[in-house]
Design goal:
This protein is of the alpha+beta class. It is built from four helices and eight strands; from the N terminus they run H-E-E-E-E-E-E-H-H-H-E-E.
Length: 363
């Protein structure tokens, strides 16, 4: 029952709201209709007032147009009379001006005819004078051209002779320069080949020294401080960069040294390799003997008549790293003497050569 009562109450409330809303809508519609009627009435009143004002304006415009038309008719008659008077005056003025212009034109025609006659006479005189001057100028120009042609021919001949002489002198100069260059190139080539020969000998000497040191080190490593009993038949031989040494019972130990290759200006030296051969029985080492310490090489210069070895050695010892050309210029020796002296010093082991420079051997 409570739910039904609640539903009835809600329905009554909704109906009341609907009646209230319907009344509000009707009231609003009536108000809109009243407002619309009032606005329509106001618009009709305004339209009637506008029509009445427009009618009055039209009447006033018609009255004003009639008055202006009458004024134009009156003014048109006066203006017509003024125009006729102006045209008559203008016609008289134009006639007088035409008469004056005709007189001026006749006078100008006479002046122009006189000017044409004078101009014709002056032109004829000028042409006669110009023809005479042109003939004179033509003769003078022909003479000048002949003169210029002769001078130009002489100048061309002189220039050709000078150019031929210059070409001959240049050819001679170039031939001399070429001969000097060839001689200098030949000298430089010879110097370079001699320096290569010295470098090869120095490299050979250095390889031999290294090989001897290697043999001594090998002997020390194998036998120690004892001296082996070497047979007289097995004498160490050194040939073409290889050394063969026999110890004890004749077992050979061969050290092969690769050939040194000359690259550029220096010599590249490869390390020697040792190949021991197999032996059937190891020899008994003898009693140890103390080896004498190797004495450092002393500079030893051999006198050979007129020799420059001592001077070259002293010059290199003062400042290391001297070239062959510097030695020749400093000591005043020729190529053959300097090369022979340097070769002898290199063979004695007093100097070494690297990269075309000569040094004292490192101690």
């Amino acid at each position: 029952m409570a739910l039904k009562d609640l539903w009835d109450a809600e329905r009554k409330k909704r109906r009341e709201e609907m009646r209230l809303r319907s009344w509000e809508v009707g009231t609003t519609i009536d108000q809109f209709a009243t407002d619309r009627q009032d606005m329509a009435r106001q618009q009709r009143n305004r339209l009637d007032a506008f029509k009445m004002q427009l009618r009055q304006d039209r009447n006033e415009l018609a009255d004003r147009s009639a008055a202006e038309k009458n004024d134009r008719l009156y003014l048109g008659a006066e203006r017509q009379e003024e125009i006729q008077n102006f045209l008559a005056v203008a016609a008289d003025r134009r006639y007088q001006e035409a008469v004056q212009q005709a007189g001026k034109a006749q006078k100008q025609a006479e002046e122009l005819a006189e000017f044409a006659r004078n101009l014709t006479e002056q032109t004829a005189l000028f042409l006669r004078a110009t023809s005479t001057e042109r003939s004179l100028m033509s003769s003078q120009l022909a003479a000048d051209l002949q003169d210029f042609h002769e001078k130009l021919s002489n100048t061309v001949a002189l220039e050709r002779t000078g150019l031929q002489r210059q070409q001959l002198e240049r050819k001679i100069t170039l031939s001399r320069d070429l001969a000097a260059f060839m001689e200098e190139l030949r000298s430089d080539t010879s110097q370079y080949l001699q320096e290569l020969e010295l470098s090869r000998e120095s490299g050979t000497r250095e390889i031999q020294g290294q090989l001897a040191q290697y043999v001594a080190d090998l002997q020390m490593a194998v036998w120690g401080s004892a001296r082996p009993q070497a047979n007289s038949a097995n004498v160490p031989a050194r040939k073409n960069g290889s050394a063969t040494t026999s110890f004890g019972n004749g077992t050979p130990i061969k050290a092969t040294v690769q050939s040194a290759k000359v690259l550029g200006r220096g010599a590249a030296i490869s390390a020697p390799t040792v190949k021991p051969q197999k032996t059937s029985a190891a020899p008994m080492p003898p009693a140890p003997v103390k080896p004498k310490p190797p004495s450092p090489p002393q500079p030893e210069i051999k006198a050979r008549g007129v020799s420059y070895e001592e001077e070259i050695y002293e010059y290199i010892s003062k400042s290391e790293g001297k070239r062959l050309k510097e030695i020749e210029e400093a000591l005043g020796v020729n190529r053959v003497q300097s090369v022979d002296a340097l070769r002898s010093l290199i063979q004695q082991g007093l100097i070494v050569e690297r990269d075309r420079l000569y040094y004292l051997p490192a101690s």
